[in-house]
């Protein structure tokens, strides 16, 4: 029996449904890992994670099974054995599985036991749970291979240890959330290692998949809880780890210990990587966005440049008669600093045309939100026309604070294909913008220096849909609004609980009412990268029509009617 092992961790990106492409990546990484005993790939790597209901197509499962056999045959050639995540049908049941490919065959298969069914996860809808797994044997060593959720509860690792496991290798598809690194390492992996006295290698995928960003950040902890290896976050890496068998059991030798992105760089990187993979894998040549001279569109433009390069980003300023010269100057300065294509396209004539068309019907009414929101809807139509004509994806720019309370124009500034700020509160947008002016992210393609003009960061936010308009005319200041939303949205607190934290009751009740009334808008919003534990859509799923108010107030507006806070 060997007293050393070389195990390569393949922290790779993957494309859902691209089984041949994912398999090609497996073989390329195996070639890179020459000299290792084993190379490990992330959860469901062969089919891509998360596959959602695509995994229910029999033809996809058949194709994955055939490709797995091809990979198994390849394991007969010189090189390491492979531990590959895939989906497998056994006895008529579909399973989330990991397969050991060695010496030209599928040497072992183990099935995921714990199927998560919360937040972004719907695995009980897709898979059947496997039995408590037993270790696999590789080069005379008993290796436990729990799959992702299997280590979040102690039963699986305890069972594997009782059956003689000497090392844990856990493959994962763990989406990024703020502060999740510490939870994975300190809250889960170290506990399983210390509880059993066994080392644990944690391999996570990297890349974007629709609304999810995967940060990688794979690592190894030894049985005493010590961190032996830490891979980078937000980048692909294929890293060999070296293991030694001692009198106390197996230990991973100290290897590379990368420093992970700190806050708010981690948020910014999630936005960049998610947008990059979304645009590229959906075949768009680039993106187009409205550049208003405000903080949200400026931040989105910077994210897009870091994701795609300046040559693939098109900013369009669409002034109306309410647009200030400062906004025109700030939008132009931002475009110049980022080096993007920039077009000024006034919308006055289009707005006048709608006013004329609607004049007879609107006659005798006061000018209000309907007329204001025409400007936003004209802009949305114009940007979609550019997208249709020239091919770039229209990127929307609304933040989570605005979307929480409906401060967005449906069929206007909500029109588009993707929104990197969807799960970022306004105060977060300011934080990442200030950070980006001082730093270039490791994965970024944009320029150094100030890319968001200082005046954009310091002026009062405004939609400029009427004279002297400010966001604060309709909403509490963002440094008040965001903490209230944090309580109501992220922690599902009641009005009473939020008020007890020192906030004005009338303000909290008003915000809660707006939050519930805007649900129908959020259902029609484009996708955007998940950053928090309670993003709209995947995590927080509320009915559109309901009358509950935790503060006791019942809405006086008919549920389902159009309620528009302008932006």
Automatic annotation (TrEMBL):
Similarity comment: In the C-terminal section; belongs to the NAD synthetase family.
Keyword Nucleotide-binding found: yes
Top EC class for this record: ligase
Residue positions binding L-glutamine: 118, 174, 180
Name by which UniProt lists this protein: Glutamine-dependent NAD(+) synthetase
Xref: PROSITE patterns: CN_HYDROLASE (PS50263), NITRIL_CHT_1 (PS00920)
CDD domains referenced in this protein's UniProt entry, alphabetically: GAT_Gln-NAD-synth, NAD_synthase
Reactions catalysed: deamido-NAD(+) + L-glutamine + ATP + H2O = L-glutamate + AMP + diphosphate + NAD(+) + H(+)
GO MF annotation: an example: ATP binding
GO BP terms in the entry: NAD+ biosynthetic process
Active-site residues, as the UniProt record annotates them: 43, 112, 148
One Pfam family this sequence matches: CN_hydrolase
Role played: Catalyzes the ATP-dependent amidation of deamido-NAD to form NAD. Uses L-glutamine as a nitrogen source.
Domain of life of the source: Bacteria
Positions of the CN hydrolase domain: 5-245
Pathway annotation from the record: Cofactor biosynthesis; NAD(+) biosynthesis; NAD(+) from deamido-NAD(+) (L-Gln route): step 1/1
Binding site for ATP: 290-297, 397
Gene name in the database record: nadE
Positions with a binding annotation for deamido-NAD(+): 373, 402, 521
Keyword ATP-binding found: yes
Keyword terms: ATP-binding, Ligase, NAD, Nucleotide-binding
EC code: 6.3.5.1
GO cellular component: cytoplasm
